[in-house]
Amino acid sequence: MAIEKKIDKNNELLDSSETEINQAVLESQTENKKNEVEHNYQHGYEILHDLAQKAFTLSTSEETSTIKPEINNLEKEAKELSTETKEKIEQESSESAIEHLPNYNPESAEAKLVELFPASEKIQKRFNEKISPEMKEAIAIVCGQVFNKGKYPYTLIGSNCYIPHTEHSEKIPDDLDVIFGIKDLGIDLKDIVEEKNPDGEKNISRVTKYTDGAYAELVKLQEQGIIKDLGVEELRKFGHEKNGCVKIRCLIKTANEWKEMEAFAQNMNDEVINQGKNKNGIINLGVEKQRLEVIDANGVKVNIGSEKTAEELYLKNTINEFGLYNLNGWENKGAVSAKALQRIFNIINLDSQRFEDSIDQMIENIGQIDPPTEESKIAQKTLKNLWDQFKTLPTEGPGLVKHLMEVNQIEIDTDNPRERKILSTEKAVDIITTETKKDMADIFDRYQELEKKYQEYLNDPEKSPEKNQATIEIIDQEIQTLLSIGSKYKKYLNNTNSADKNDFCVYAAMPQLRNQFILPVITRLANNRKNLEKI
Amino acid sequence: MNLNTNQNSVAMKTNEDGNKTTTPPITPEEHEQDKKNLPKADFIKQLMLSGTPPEEAEELADEIYGKA
Fold this sequence. Notes:
The structure holds 2 protein chains of 2 kinds.
Chain A: E1 3-5, E2 19-21, H1 23-60, H2 68-96, H3 109-112, E3 114-118, H4 121-130, H5 133-145, E4 154-157, H6 159-162, E5 175-181, E6 192-196, E7 203-207, H7 214-223, E8 227-236, E9 242-253, E10 258-266, H8 269-274, E11 290-297, E12 300-305, H9 307-322, H10 338-349, H11 358-367, H12 374-391, H13 400-407, H14 417-458, H15 465-495, H16 504-507, H17 510-534
Parallel strand pairs in A: 3-11, 5-10
Antiparallel strand pairs in A: 1-2, 4-5, 6-7, 8-9, 9-10, 11-12
Chain B: H1 9-20, H2 28-37, H3 40-49, H4 54-65
């Protein structure tokens, strides 16, 4: 929140050094700005109207041919005025949207690539209605007392940004995500040291020195007991080399519970330019021009991504995740996370998306990445393969989403068909991703255990037919378990109706489980079984 | 739309999430080697010995080794 000079009833300055956080002053100033913008707009409109009238009169007169250049000049003048008025309005609107950022540097390269504007009533209303009171409290604390003090753009991302931009969703955000510029962090990366945990198993990061910035503000909040478990971690690209970005994690105290926050200090324009790459707009959102909206959370003004930003963010996440996912193999030994599918669904579910076209649209958008990267190419190919494969499935099935809703006895209480479709898909995606994720983890664990037993037996100097048979039996048991998991998903596939694009998000979770887990593990177990038979 | 993909911080978050996702236990190279070590007919035989019905074993073998 902005810090304002205290004024008396006559608008006279009482004490230039005395300051306080004054919401009434802010509101009054915002109202003045609004009036000013309206006045400018009205003024511009009147001039344009007048010019248009003159142009019309001239164009209908008999002397049109002789005065054509004059008409052209008037037209040019009208366009210039129109542009000027538009720019003025945008500038005024933008100025009133940064009042909650007292240290913001609008002249910075990053700020020039980011446009801040007040959230519409619709977005504010949804935020008020759909975000829990505890989450609003946590957002107000951390944005008001930490991120609003930054010099560079920041924004709330994740579900708190997604939810206000979608009409139908029952998701309740349980954590909050922020991205901000690394220059606002207040830690030199060399002052983050990795140490072994006392138990020696895990590395922990410790900050040895810090200056003013987001981290220092969080330390203050921790000292006051407002947050706890503050930690930082340098991030790595796909788990390998460090990439100059830092994640801060903490828990924020609210009236009833602790809310988890993850804030990502991102590379900024300078860092990206120094790497010889194209300019970067805001911190990591990765597009050249970002629009952020300013919403009110418990009286504190907070930046959240616009719908376009949310879409691009999800799209980029999807690219990164699918870049690791190879339908026919295990390139990079990567695996698509459940969140990738939820993100596809989130993109589809945004307000301005047309459900019917959104998957084709998404595949096309990935192809428009400039310049294309290896990851974006793999992501596009993978998604297209999945989509093409999905389209070959029968069109007469009852529908996988419908099937999962029935099996899990979930009823959606609405008469609105679009709402029903979105809410049921949302649930079905949650169900299938939870299920496949668990199956993958279980298959992995059981396989490791089995492989260990198999190797132990091979190395056992006292082999016996009984021990051999016992090892074969546990292999047989696992083969049958894997076949039964396979059958379960086959049933799901039989229920899929490819005429219903709704089913795609759910379907997309399944090929990986079969191709990367079930089939290779069965092959390995059959191999081991044969080897045991020879002994 | 002109996405700039220079940044990898979203990827980092992806990575954070990705780490929670189970990695396939067997690599593609290992899987190919397993297939070489165990011809299709042997695979079917082992599966049947493990209690799998013949049709199911053959169907699975077709899926893994191809129909040829």
